[in-house]
Amino acid sequence: MEYAIETINLVKRYPTKRAAMGRGGPPFGGGHGGGMTSFGSIFDIIRKKKGPFVEALRGVSLQVSKGEIFGLLGPNGAGKTTLIKILCTMVLHDEGEAYVNGIDVKRDPHAVLKNLQAVLPESRGFNWRLSGRQNLYFFALLYGLGKKEAEERIDYLLEFTGLAERANDGYQRYSTGMQRKLLLCRALLPDSSVLLFDEPTAGLDPTSAIEFRNMLSGVAKERNKTIFMSTHNLIEAQKMCNRIAIIDRGKITACDTPDNIRYKTFDERRFSVTFHDAIFNEGHKLMLDELEKMYGVHSATPEVNSEEIFEGITFRLEKDADLSSMLEVIIKSGLKIKTVNTEEPTLEDAFIEITSRHPEFDRQMRGP
Length: 368
Fold this sequence. Notes:
Layout: E1 5-15, H1 17-21, H2 38-47, E2 53-64, E3 69-73, H3 80-87, E4 95-100, E5 103-104, H4 109-115, E6 116-119, H5 132-142, H6 147-160, H7 176-188, E7 194-198, H8 206-222, E8 226-230, H9 234-240, E9 243-248, E10 251-256, H10 258-264, E11 268-275, H11 282-292, E12 297-304, E13 310-318, H12 323-332, E14 337-343, H13 347-355, H14 359-366
Parallel strand pairs: 3-8, 3-9, 6-7, 7-8
Antiparallel strand pairs: 1-2, 1-4, 4-5, 9-10, 11-13, 11-14, 12-13
Helix pairs in contact: 5-6, 10-13
């Protein structure tokens, strides 16, 4: 089966400052008599004989199907941007293989770029003095589109992104959201089958972000595009992506649907029961002891306010624990149940659980 994107044991190393400088000092000489001997340092760097190196990617293997919206999540410095830049031929990997529509990104980068368009944070290139339409026409010519085809496609894309009414305004008058939409128009001009996005909604206000996410979903569904995106927005990933991968210290630590990752990460589940007016008493303490001795119950924590009103119980349970037997015990105690709520784990809960298994990432997620 040919995948839209496939990586096999991908490795990328970056030399540290010490490796780049070498043991003999700056590679281009400096100090006394640095001229001729500097070439040895340069060749050592090229041959990678000097270390140390930082491994940004450590054996990354992924398979992204055609027409899929695939999300890449990870803490800062985990390797997300490096992977995206390898796929769009901006960075060469050191080991492993990477393919876009079956084309090797290292052996045939020109063919890869005909199948792929990338929208990165540093992607600009628009002329501030030209209108949105004129900028798109300029890029259409660069992509080799004929005049008629370019005009038809630009009209369609401007309408699709809601920019038609502002198409003849100067680019300098565009808001951040409008600039992002114009980037999407540019990415869709060549009609490439694979689109890469690095933080697609970063810097957008909530309304613009929702609108942009809806457009990307529409692009994947209506135009049968494969979308590969890195994001820190976990709600965005959960709502948009068919599957996601979590990258942690250069390795893929989870890859599945958002729901499967949420549920498989945890060995327990939580649910809460609230009661109609009840005063906490000794009988309720005995009931709590009985509940905590039941199979599958990790804890049963009472919620009692300052006036001794027994408001409810929060349970932590095994995934296969029988809720009905617990509810029977509660009812037999004379308590009147008001609500029963299951607390579903979020993708954020799973992400923090997975990445905080390493102390350095736990500190990064929590901040100083």
